[in-house]
């Protein structure tokens, strides 16, 4: 039994496409575009004239609209200007009326004050003097209170400063005492170690042996 032949025939795709021929056209070709029906020069002129007429009608419509807008703007301007003028006139009238009323009130008050002053001049003088005396007393009391408050605040601040300084001094003294105590303890330990160290005892025993021998 021989081996089975699994080979497949190779087909060139380019050769296959050529053998099929050109593909079917799915739209107009270049020849169709070139051979299309074209208008004559007279027809082109007619189209241009129609376009010009259309633009003329548009221009006329725009001119009419502009004229209408101009008329409306003029009306609105007249209304606004008339309103502003009327408002300015009203303001002037109000000012004149206020001036007249103020003049009348001042004249009436001056006349009434002259009549009242002629009747109660001594009484008013006494009241004015009493008010002055009261104001002076109030000023003195207020100044005294302010001075007492300032002194109290200064004394409080001084006491706070002194207390802070005392606290700082006491802390420094305590630290110094601690340092002295620690230094004394260290010194005692050092002396004790020097007295009873094993090196010193060994040297003393050697010295004794030398003396005996």
TrEMBL record:
UniProt feature, compositional bias: Acidic residues: 203-213
Family statement drawn from the similarity comment of this UniProt entry: Belongs to the FAM133 family.
Biased composition (Basic and acidic residues): 39-49, 170-182
Location of the region described as Disordered in the Swiss-Prot/TrEMBL record: 14-60, 73-213
Domain of life: Eukaryota
Chain intervals with Basic residues compositional bias: 90-102, 131-144
Coiled coil: none
Amino acid composition bias (Low complexity), ranges on this chain: 103-123
InterPro entries according to UniProt: Fam133 (IPR026766)
Protein name per its UniProtKB record: Family with sequence similarity 133 member B
